[in-house]
Amino acid sequence: MKKPQCGRGPSGFTLIEMLVVMVLMIALLLFAVPAFQTYVRQGKLWGVANQTKTLMQLARLEAVRRTCPTIIRIVEEDPLKGDPAQVEGFVDCDGDGVADADMPPTLGSFPLPSGVFLLAPPDREGADSVGKLSPDPAGGDAKVAIFLPRGEIDEIGGFRFGDDRGNFLEVWVEPMASGRP
């Protein structure tokens, strides 16, 4: 004998219940997406600053180890070649501002991620955003961090990074005697 079933058919969600859930999800996304974008932008700045600091520490140690100056510089973007701006470090025993042929080509280099620029408040861009540091031995307007054989820096200063939303970070090296970033 069959059991009698109570009044309703198979259970499920009604259209109204699904629409309410969809509206709640959209409302949450409207608040979460801008906060997430801010987090990503600030993460890029922190990442570039930390990579630059690490490269500077490596350059300082390499200068002491090889008893030769090392250089950290920002290579500007080249739109004709499609090259992004990048931070590079290399050994420069002969002082000409170019990586020495008998040494490894670079201590390290990395491109600036999209949305991160050489930028300092209020309106300094590119080479103008670099604080103090030494003139580039290879010529040009760039300023570079030169670590001398005893581990000190030639001129105190730093690189400043920013984004188009007004967030800024800098990697600064001082005092001259310790050369610590």
Polypeptide structure, described:
The protein has 181 residues and is of the alpha+beta class. The protein contains one helix and ten strands; from the N terminus they run αββββββββββ. The protein is elongated and about 95 Å long. The model has no long low-confidence stretch (mean pLDDT 85). The relative contact order is 0.16. Strand 4 and strand 5 form a beta hairpin. The longest helix has 52 residues. The strands form two sheets. A five-stranded antiparallel sheet has the order 3-2-1-8-7, covered by helices on one side. Strands 4, 5, 6, 9 and 10 form a five-stranded antiparallel sheet that branches.
Q: Taking Cα atoms only, what radius of gyration do you get, to the nearest Å?
A: 27 Å
Order of helices and strands: HEEEEEEEEEE
Strand order of the largest sheet: 3-2-1-8-7
The shape, in one word, is: elongated
Number of helices: 1
Find the count of extended strands (DSSP E, 2+ residues): 10
The percent range for strand residues is 15-25%
Helix content: 25-40%
Overall mean confidence score, pLDDT: 85
Our measurement of the CA-to-CA distance between the termini, rounded to an integer number of angstroms, reads 85 Å
Quaternary class: single chain
Provide the structure class. Answer: alpha+beta
Sheet with the most strands, sense and barrel status = 5 strands, antiparallel
Taking pLDDT < 50 over at least 5 consecutive residues as the criterion, the unreliable ranges are: none
Please describe the topology of this protein.
Layout: H1 15-66, E1 70-75, E2 86-91, E3 108-111, E4 117-120, E5 124-125, E6 131-132, E7 134-135, E8 143-147, E9 157-162, E10 168-173
Antiparallel strand pairs: 1-2, 1-8, 2-3, 4-5, 4-9, 6-9, 7-8, 9-10
